Amino acid sequence: MLRHNLPDWAHWRAQDADGTWWAYEVEPLQHFTGWYENEVGQCVRIDKEQANPQWQTTLSKIVSVKPKKNLLIAEETHWAKVEVWQSDSIRSLYLHDDIAIQSQLDLAQKHQLLKQYSRAMMSFLLFKSQPKSLLLFGLGGGSIIHFLHHWFPQLAIQAVDINERIIAIAKQYFELPEVPQINIHNCDAASFLENTPLKNQDVILIDLHDGQSLPEFLSKSDFLTQCHQALSAEGVLVFNLLIQQEQDFLPIMLALRQSFTATSLCLSLKNDQNIIVLAFKSPQSIDMIELQQRASECQEKYAIEFEQFVASLTIIGAK
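Predicted structure:
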């Protein structure tokens, strides 16, 4: 294993059954064929070796000095209190407090997605391997844009955020790419769809929670119908839902099923309140064996734990 690749924030390391080595900030939990982060910390892939049938014995603690954490900016905006902290090469965006991390970026490896829910949202790649156009509601620190622009430099991205200061902070502190393919709009998601009728979007990503709640319009069928109309024929909608209570989840799913009547997929993240939902514009035949094969291929390419995500999927049949 390439131990010199360990970031300063890493306190644990472990190897998955397929031979992939990961570094973790917090002690990871064991899954069927590997390890996963405890969501309160971060993780990154550091190496790949041959498959290891004894992978369960590889978890070990790293003795290191905890890096200094520096506050770069703190301000009150109309929508939330915003703070940006830096620890080694990691910059973190906090909303409302300094406990819940909304977004993270490793300045040394901008294409790495450090938050598990962000990696889970990339599960659309199992169905749309070469997206040409994408609409993102909720910018945050722009880590998803960094990932997408790295792997798909020609991808046309429309990103929408209601907080103009978040957009400015993403550009200044998170080095958001400023290229013609990426357009950022300061607007709320519902108004954007009403006033900017887009068509043929291969993917729509909805990541609109502020660490405390979800916008009410997400449970309205009008907004979701507009999302359906904006997608291409084989397009996919991806929701990141921060669910505090069960009653928060049901209205959104009911509204979703009114507009998206084809098969949907739900992915619950371990030790987290996030639920990732994938909804398809056209009917999908979900072959789990084929999907697991695609997950293995994508996991190898993107260093994202797609095999674990597929194993945790719940299929909601067509309406």
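Summary: Residues 288-302 form the longest helix (15 residues).
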